[in-house]
Amino acid sequence: MNSYVYLFCDVDGTPIYVGKGTKKRWQRHYTSDTHLGRLLKKRCREGMILNPIISSYMTPEDAISLEKVLIKFFGRADQRTGTLLNLTDGGEGAVNMSDETKKKLSIIAKGRVWSETSRAKLSESCKGRVFTPEHRLKLKQAKA
Length: 144
Prior knowledge:
Radius of gyration: 19 Å
Helix content: 40-55%
Order of helices and strands: EEHHEHHHH
Distance between the termini: 24 Å
Largest sheet: 3 strands, antiparallel
Structural class: alpha+beta
Strand content: 5-15%
Oligomer: single chain
């Protein structure tokens, strides 16, 4: 019961995107280099509200259902039925991965061979990182 549904609105209050997520999912849009990410960065400078969560503490299934209802209610711009930048009717994403899909992704990840350049970059980016005692405990518990 840690899922939520979020709604981004334009400066004038017009809904522009509905999504579902957990943890800080809604914030990741601001760092993505997508049409939505660039639009949100621009709108934030113009005064867009930064706390878009409209319903939280939901099961993933309830979040998917609410996302679909809201997308249908506000309509999608690509279908000329509304104002949302959503490109689907909702419900897609990692929450809905089948066991078969998870297994395929696992096989791909395990078989990946990193180039020396990539390994050097990764190594360099990790140097000097300092973890708090709390973070170290969480890492230890995750491995157990």
